[in-house]
Specification:
This protein has 4 helices and 4 strands, in the order αββαααββ. It is an alpha+beta fold. The protein has a 4-stranded antiparallel beta sheet. α1 packs antiparallel against α4 and α2 runs antiparallel to α3.
Amino acid sequence: MAENHNPEASVLLGVSNAMVKLHKEQFGRGPTTARAHFAGPDMLVCMLRDAFLPAERKLVELGDAARVRDTRTAYQAATAGDFITAVEQILDRKVQAFASGIDAENSTVFEVFSFESRPER
């Protein structure tokens, strides 16, 4: 039986792996699950679950989810260039905008990338 190689799936797996690696490097721990999906021709969303440090989870349990969101947002802004560079290299597309969303109560991070539109062929 011939191997069914899906280039889009390989690219999405590459993005997911890059996001896990960057989270490990930046936060000392990576998420347990990462899934990247295209949301139309010019947008990519990567969802990372169980992404928070034990101390962050404890802060959420103590009712201080806002502090976790604020701190994570600041970290993501400081390291945005690393995330953008990784995705641009994997997809060979220019990132136009990048945003990180944090759901502290569910220990989930969303990395969202918007790309420059490709010229019509």
